[in-house]
Design goal:
- By secondary structure, the protein is an alpha+beta fold.
- It has two domains: 5-218, Rossmann fold (3-Layer(aba) Sandwich), CATH 3.40.50.300; 257-331, RNA polymerase II/Efflux pump adaptor protein, barrel-sandwich hybrid domain (OB fold (Dihydrolipoamide Acetyltransferase, E2P), Beta Barrel), CATH 2.40.50.
- The protein has helices at 43-50, 68-73, 95-105, 110-123, 139-151, 169-184, 198-204, 309-315, and strands at residues 5-14, 17-27, 31-36, 57-63, 66-67, 81-84, 157-161, 190-195, 207-212, 215-218, 224-226, 228-231, 236-240, 243-246, 256-258, 265-267, 277-289, 292-298, 302-308, 322-327.
- The chain has a six-stranded mixed beta sheet, with helices on both faces.
- Strand 18 and strand 19 form a beta hairpin.
- Mean pLDDT is 88; it is low at 348-365.
């Protein structure tokens, strides 16, 4: 059974021209991997190649240690790796029959098929759609049905192309929970999905790659923190890593906050400031960006402040110095809370984690 997918030094082409280079990508059990990129950057082409639907590439792709041609000759392949496209095609019949299609092709007994279809409908939150004609569904409903149709086959690895596009905010939140549950409970072994929505990627996983200059690179956002809201009588606070931050009003309690590094004031000594958030720590690293410098400070959480090179030299800052950080409540942003998500700088950042819901208890294979 498929336990690891690895891509090494792969060049993907489209119509004879170079599209995307993947130097190193490995997906293993229990992992959720997000590929972040705009339309036309090669996200879909990569997934189609991994699913065996396109072959216009050079390099090494392994399924466990099996090369692609040998893996895709296997009759068990559909139960090990499946791709759900961005615009899935529905058969001209009911939703229930669409979901049952793959099981019938496998020759599974009717009773087990009914149970699997029922569980998939329940898990995706669409039992009310079972008798509807699939061709009459909305875009969001179609995506849920397509996921259920893949899920009943219980693939080891699931590839999803832009699963959140065209889905409203409430639907996104619900779908995120279900996708996390698939991996956490072992319903599927691993999930690889593409998206252009950075908030979705940040909320779902710490393993994010982004496409830049026709290359697939690690995406490590600055000053993104996962935690929970703590309400007091007078204040809204966000607790992360043992640190509490004063935060602005929100539509719903955020799980992620972002502090832009340019909105942080750094000082060698305490200063009088109207900024409610004040952290103290020591400099852990310095990274130059032209005439700017990213100063990483360990202050209970790792925080990056961006200052000018002359300021760094004027203050005489170096690794190990004690410093103070100040930033206003209004500087804090909530990635993914609005359709127009905030821009997140890329560099080293702390890891993310999240509680996981459970998959319905039907575990027969």
């Amino acid at each position: 059974m498929l336990g690891k997918l690895s891509v090494r030094r792969v060049d993907i082409r489209r119509n004879g021209r170079h599209l995307l280079h993947v130097h190193d990508l490995t997906v293993g059990p229990g992992e959720i991997v997000a590929i972040l990129g705009e339309n036309g950057t090669g996200k879909t082409s990569l997934l189609r190649i991994l699913a065996g639907l396109d072959t216009d590439f050079q390099g090494d792709i392994r399924y466990n240690e099996q090369i692609a041609p040998a893996f895709f000759r296997s009759r068990q392949r559909p139960r090990q790796l499946l791709l759900v496209p961005q615009d899935p095609v529905m058969f001209a019949c009911s939703v229930e029959k669409n979901i049952d299609y793959g099981l019938r092709r496998l020759g599974m007994a009717a009773a087990e098929r009914r149970e699997r279809v029922r569980a998939a409908l329940e898990f995706m939150g669409i039992p009310h759609l079972a008798g509807r004609r699939a061709m009459e569904l909305s875009g969001g409903e179609t995506k849920r049905v397509a996921l259920a149709r893949a899920l009943v086959l219980r693939p080891r690895f699931l590839l999803l192309d832009e699963p959140f596009s065209g889905i409203d905010r409430a639907g996104r939140v619900s779908l995120e929970e279900r996708l996390r549950a698939m991996v956490t409970t072992g319903t599927i072994q691993a999930l690889l999905f593409t998206t252009h929505q950075q908030g979705v990627a940040l909320r779902l996983t710490e393993t994010i790659l982004h496409i830049h200059d026709a290359r697939l690179l690690p995406y490590q956002p600055l000053n993104i923190y996962r935690g929970q809201v703590v309400q007091t009588k007078d204040h809204r606070l966000f607790e992360t890593g043992g640190v509490r931050l004063f935060i602005p009003p929100f539509e719903r309690p955020p799980r992620l906050v972002h502090i832009p590094p340019t909105d942080i004031i750094l000082s060698r000594r305490p200063v009088h400031s109207t900024a409610r958030n004040h952290l103290e720590g020591h400099i852990d690293g310095l990274s130059r960006r032209g005439d700017l410098v990213d100063v990483t400070v360990q202050a209970g959480i790792a925080v990056v402040a961006r200052i000018s090179l002359p300021s760094l030299q004027e203050y005489g800052l170096t690794v190990g110095n004690r410093v103070h950080l100040y930033f206003k409540i209004s500087a804090i942003q909530y990635p993914g809370q609005t359709d127009q998500e905030s821009r997140v700088e890329v560099a080293a950042a702390p890891g993310l984690a999240d509680p996981r819901p459970e998959w319905p208890p039907n575990e027969s294979s």
